[in-house]
Each structure stands twice: as C-alpha cells, then as structure tokens.
Amino acid sequence: MKQVPVRLDLKTLHIPTYSAEKLSSMKDMDWNDFLQRVCSLLDSTEKNTGAARSKLNLLYYLSTVAVHKENASRLISSQLFPILIQQLRAAANWDIRAKVARVIGLLALHTSELGENVPVSEAIILLTELIRENFRNSKLKQCLLPALGELLYLVAREEEKREHPRECWVVPSAAYTVLMRCLREGVRLLRC
C-alpha cells in the first residue's frame, strides 16, 4: 500500500516540535518532560472532533521522529508503547488506529535494541485479533499488516542476537496463521 504523505500541522500540535536530532540529544529530564506531555495528549479521553484531529496530528509527528534509531529505541522502551497499544485497542476512530499501527511499525523497524520488558507480545496479539476481526476489510488489513510484520521481524532479530534465546516475547501461532492467510489471499487476488 502506498504511504500517504505526512500531513503534520505544527501550529495545532500541543507540544514542542523538536527535530529527531534534537530529541536524540535531549537530557533525561527534558526527554521525560517531553514524553510525559506526549503520553498525556495521546491518553486523553476527549471524544470531540478536535481531540481526534489533535491525536492524529500527534501521531503524524511521532511518525516523523520514530525513524531515528535512537528515538525509536527510547520510545518503544518508554511508557508511550503501552499507551499506543491501548489506543490501538480502544480508539473508536479507525484513522487513529491506522496511524497508531503505523507508529508501532516504524518503532519496530527502527529500534536498534529492545528491552525484555517491552510488551511486544501484547501488540502482536492485538494486531492479530484486529486483522482477524476485520479480515474482509482489505484497507484495514493494509494498515495493520505492516506493523504486525515489523514486530514479528523485530522479535526474530532480537532472539537471533541473544546467545541463549529465551521466551521474552511470546508470538502466538495465530499471528503466523493470520499472516499466512493474508499472504495466500493476496497471491490469489494477484492471479485473478
């Protein structure tokens, strides 16, 4: 699926818009303040149109800074990742869910080191369930499958790095089943 260009509106973003380079060089105290603001904006429970637009704008911004390896590693290991999972599960707006999945996929792609306490398994299980529940909706699958694939690849890459692999991140067999089913369906559609 062709990625839509990022439509970031800096004027409506309610946090300082640091560049990826600036974020990577921040001291811990400044980083924690920034991260706290991001998390509170994402975790907001407001239901109006402005709140949804604000969340989308924040997710676009996170997409631009998540491509920096150091930022991706810090973000995926922070309290932001569980909030992204929560938004993926609970957001009523599918645009928000799609952008959350994109941020998760970018974090997984650009992370250079993954801590054992990062709830990657929870994200894999949730993405698998969402794909299974919306299997007939090809547009949603195109939004969710890249994130699932990146997380699976990240787990495989991390397990390969370790001398004595452990079951830090359990990947349910349903994730592979859903992935293979989507691939078979894609091949079948290409033949038609």
Automatic annotation (TrEMBL):
GO molecular function: kinase activity
Alphabetized UniProt keyword annotations: Kinase, Transferase
InterPro entries the UniProt entry points to: ARM-like (IPR011989), ARM-type_fold (IPR016024), ULK4 (IPR045906)
The keyword Ubl conjugation belongs to this UniProt entry's keyword annotation: no
PANTHER family, A to Z: SER/THR PROTEIN KINASE ULK4 (PTHR46240), SERINE_THREONINE-PROTEIN KINASE ULK4 (PTHR46240:SF1)
Name of this chain's protein: ULK4 kinase
Organism of this sequence: Haliaeetus albicilla
Taxonomy of the source species: Eukaryota, Metazoa, Chordata, Craniata, Vertebrata
